[in-house]
Amino acid sequence: MPPRLAPLKDFREYPIEEMRQRMADLLSEMRRRRSIRQFSSRPVPRDVVEDCIRVAMTAPSGANRQPWHFALVGDSKVKQRIRLGAEEEERSFYEGRAPAEWLEALAPLGTDARKPFLETAPYLIVVFAQLHGIEDDGTKVKHYYVNESVGIATGMLIMALHHVGLASLTHTPAPMRFLNEILDHPPHEKPYMILVVGYPEIDAQVPDISRKSFDQACEIVDPDNE
């Protein structure tokens, strides 16, 4: 069956100098992004968070299967259950499952098994990766490059949240299957990540860390433009 094609309508090209300015503005904005762990309980507009999820839904995916599902959680009782489930797994991690090398790497970040932000922040976005799809008649639909597709969508979601002036934190307690039970999701939807969303506390602090330089993170293989 030949692919169904449609004319490209929405691509927008910019003059080179405008390209550079747009990129400079975006780079400056994204360099301000930090993961935080001290969230205010101050409410945020849900419609804005919903639109951030819509941005994530524009991500490319293997064979356009779009193997993601997002649960936007603002209910205080559900957030409390998620916190209790996450802290149970985190205690097991910090008190026995984590190798010493991993704990040493985490030490500068000041993390431990306590996760109060899971209740304090106004919203949690639980990202699920759909291992396969299911048609209305119950037929399974194979999904391709699931982790890659959901990872791209999650990155776009984090970027969108920062762009509108909201802070976020990626949280991945392991294992996360307790989220299937709490949120009543089927087994073929694997919890991928919890994104904590809200405003930082007024006196929020972050670890004093640095990022790799461009040369450390990227090599240029382009002899025609050296």
- Form type: globular
- The helix-and-strand class reads alpha+beta
Task: Specify the biggest β-sheet.
Answer: 4 strands, antiparallel
Helix-strand pattern, N to C? Answer: HHEHHHEEEHEHEH
> What is the CATH class?
Alpha Beta
- Tally of contiguous helical segments: 8
Strands ordered across the widest β-sheet: 1-2-6-5
- Percent of sequence in beta strands: 15-25%
Please name the CATH topology. Answer: NADH Oxidase
The name of the CATH superfamily reads NADH Oxidase
Summed up, the domain count is 1
Radius of gyration: 20 Å
Low-confidence stretches: none
What does this structure look like?
38% of the residues lie in helices and 15% in strands. The N and C termini lie far apart (45 Å). It contains eight helices and six strands; from the N terminus they run ααβαααβββαβαβα. The chain is an alpha+beta fold and 226 residues long. The strands form two sheets. It has a four-stranded antiparallel beta sheet with strand order 1-2-6-5. It has a two-stranded antiparallel sheet with strand order 3-4.
Short summary:
This protein is α+β, with helices and mostly antiparallel strands. The chain has helices spanning 16-30, 46-56, 76-97, 100-106, 117-120, 146-163, 178-183, 214-217; strands spanning 68-73, 123-130, 132-134, 140-142, 167-171, 189-198.
